[in-house]
Specification:
2 domains; about 375 residues; 13 helices
């Protein structure tokens, strides 16, 4: 029964998307009024804490992890893995995960379809969408520049984020639309601070003729909200996402989204159809050397992701430069904040525990 359940969560203490995801879920469960649910939170980046928790684990426990690390093989009890990945093929060793994990949770139906395509059984798969901090990221108090249309990009610089494609398209649009400017925050954030990637600095120098403002530094949530709220449009030609946290935050703040409707963000973009601008794309094999080194498959098939159409994106930017989609963006904000809060994600996880995980555990015990 639920009153005998120890639910152990291995969180990632970082400012990355997975850090936000794991922290917000653990915060919700610790602060929720789910009677009898005993919560233990473990810092998955602390080897001593992980070793102690693994040693304490019992067959009656339920464990939730966000990274498929070696310690998972030593955990006793039921193990849930909330898996997030960015290309159509999950990371290496996914074929072994059914031997380690009792359930694989995906943030999107796209993620489940990727697992199923590569042979993982549907009975171990479920969809629980991630969320957005709807109380922090909202459209109240928006102040935009009436003289120029502002297009914002946020996200750690890497090939996957589509920065070059975005700059090329913006360049084409700007030549006939001088009333636009590009705001960019692409730095890498770590516990030691903020860094600008050399490749990004080279790209900025290549397009230095554009009206561009580059932001850097560790920003508070209030500062990030203000940045989102200062933009008319959020430019997100990402090739692949597990969830797309900057995109959903920007939509929540009332930015009109310009995004590929592919990968993780397709889970919430389906709910605002007609309220954002979809970027045409074609699927191509993963083509980033850094990504391939990190998630290399021995057979050379590293999956696919979305290559945005630069000419079509330039046309979208030009159209947006001449129009206003503020009303559509405000409706999208309301929908996203209502349907995809972290609280909703937490409740969905609790429901999954009650309806599938606990009954299955009790049947095994019987």
């Amino acid at each position: 029964m639920l009153d005998k359940l120890l639910f152990r969560i291995f969180t990632i203490t970082s400012v990355t998307g997975i850090g936000t995801h794991s922290t917000r879920i653990s915060d919700f469960l610790r602060n929720s009024c789910t009677k009898g649910l005993s919560i233990e939170v473990v810092n998955a980046l602390d080897p001593v804490a992980v070793a102690n928790a693994t040693g304490r684990s019992a067959k009656s426990d339920v464990n939730l992890v966000f990274l498929a690390e070696d310690y998972c093989r030593c955990l006793r009890g039921t193990i849930l893995y909330w898996s997030v990945f960015e290309s159509s093929r999950p990371p290496p060793q996914y074929s072994e995960w059914v031997e380690i994990f009792d359930y694989l949770i995906c943030a999107s139906h796209w993620g489940v379809s990727c697992f199923e395509h590569f042979g993982l059984p549907s009975e171990v798969l479920t969809v629980i969408p991630e969320g957005v901090d709807s109380e922090t990221y909202h459209n109240r108090g928006r102040v935009t520049n009436s003289e120029k249309k502002r297009f914002l990009m946020v996200g750690k610089y890497e090939r996957r984020k589509g920065y070059r494609e975005a700059f090329q398209a913006f360049d084409v649009a700007w030549r006939s639309n001088k009333n636009i400017e590009l705001l960019v925050k692409a730095d890498w954030i770590s516990p030691s601070g903020s860094q600008q990637h050399p490749g990004f600095l080279q790209l900025v120098n290549e397009f230095s003729h554009l009206p561009m403002i580059v932001y850097s530094g560790v920003a508070s949530v209030d500062q990030m909200r203000a940045l989102y709220q200062s933009a008319d449009y959020f430019l997100f030609p990402s090739l692949g996402e597990g969830w797309g946290l900057p995109l959903i935050e920007a939509i929540a703040c009332g930015c009109y989204a310009i995004s590929c409707n592919y990968s993780g963000q397709s889970e919430y973009l389906k709910d605002i159809d007609g309220l954002y601008a979809p970027i045409p794309y074609r699927l191509i094999p993963v083509d980033c050397p850094d990504f391939i080194r990190a998630y290399a498959h021995a057979d050379g098939d590293h999956g696919q992701w979305a290559q945005p159409n630069i000419a079509a994106l330039a046309e979208i930017i030009s159209t947006c430069a001449k129009a206003s989609y503020e009303d559509e963006a405000l409706v999208a904000s309301e929908i996203i904040r209502r349907r995809y809060s972290w609280e909703n994600a937490g409740y969905a996880l609790v429901k999954f525990l009650l309806t599938r995980v606990i009954p299955a555990r009790d049947r095994r015990k019987a």
